[in-house]
Amino acid sequence: MDRTVVAYVIYLLVSISLTIWVARTLSRNGRVFLADVLHGDEKLADAVNHLLVVGFYLVNLGFVALYLSDDETITDTRGIFEVLSTKLGVVLLVLGVMHLGNVYVLNRIRRRGVMEREQLPPVAPQGWAAPTAGA
Questions:
Q1: How many whole angstroms separate alpha carbon 135 and alpha carbon 132?
Q2: With a threshold of 0.85, does the pTM exceed it?
Q3: Distant-in-sequence, close-in-space partners of 14: CB < 8 Å, separation ≥ 6
Q4: CA distances from 127 to 33, 63, 64, 135 (A)
Q5: Which of 7, 19, 91, 118 is least crowded, fewest Cβ atoms below 10 Å from its Cβ?
Q6: What is the rounded distance in angstroms from the CA atom of residue 21 to the CA atom of residue 26?
Q7: Residue 95 to residues 22, 40, 48, 90, 124: CA-CA distances in angstroms?
Q8: In 10 A of CB 98, how many CB atoms?
Q9: For residues 3 and 74, is the Cβ–Cβ distance under 8 A?
Q10: What tens digit of pLDDT does each residue of 70-129 get?
Q11: 3 and 75 in contact (C-beta within 8 Å)?
């Protein structure tokens, strides 16, 4: 078998596995975060979580597919490792950036929700008190 094809197969297996692992981790841990952001609305949190995971898969797997091709032919085993280290390193960086982007956006949404909750008084006003003469 051609060494370039071997490198492609290894690259696809590792990249797709990493993408699935990161997406599942984000989905599992992000659901709790989304439920807090969305004031405990579990159904909405699940729906938003699923949409975020689908978008994550589309962007990352699309990048993996686009980054697959290579113009140089791999002639030896060392070349396989060099090409794989470069390609997988870039995929890992893209996964990390996507992860940090998701966390940043979710944190911004959560902060906005916390600020909205803090603007409401804890107890509804029940009336007013007349000022005292000594004050």
A1: 6
A2: no
A3: 84, 88
A4: 37, 61, 63, 19
A5: 118
A6: 9
A7: 8, 29, 20, 9, 46
A8: 19
A9: yes
A10: 777 788 888 888 888 988 898 889 888 888 887 788 788 777 766 766 666 666 667 777
A11: yes
